[in-house]
Amino acid sequence: MFDVLLETADRTYEAVFYENELTEILVDAMPFTIDLRDFMGQEKVGSIPIKLPSLKAQQVGTVEKGHLYLWANTDLVLFYKTFDTTYSYVNIGYFKNAKEVDALVSATEITVILRKNFNLNR
């Protein structure tokens, strides 16, 4: 597991990334910035500024509030609602405190800087 910080203009959030090929590439490339925009009243989506290998997405069935996924090998998706879906994603990780995601819901667009949490990573 990788401990990651997601920083906005006024707040820092803690997240955990699972250890896999994708997250190792993302963590090695940190810090980087993603502009997230609201999509369908249930998620924030933004293009990852890094070329990623093609990874096989899987149907997740239910997405959970506060979870982070990769969509179409190009977009980071942060879900702020829990619901059933037929879409396929690559699971990246989750917010340590899913309730904190509520603070991001009201903004139509938000800029996030992803950084390694050196205080927790070894």
Automatic annotation (TrEMBL):
<protein>
    <recommendedName>
        <fullName>Cyclophilin-like domain-containing protein</fullName>
    </recommendedName>
</protein>
<dbReference type="InterPro" id="IPR029000">
    <property type="entry name" value="Cyclophilin-like_dom_sf"/>
</dbReference>
<dbReference type="Pfam" id="PF18050">
    <property type="entry name" value="Cyclophil_like2"/>
</dbReference>
<dbReference type="InterPro" id="IPR041183">
    <property type="entry name" value="Cyclophilin-like"/>
</dbReference>
<feature type="domain" description="Cyclophilin-like">
    <location>
        <begin position="8"/>
        <end position="111"/>
    </location>
</feature>
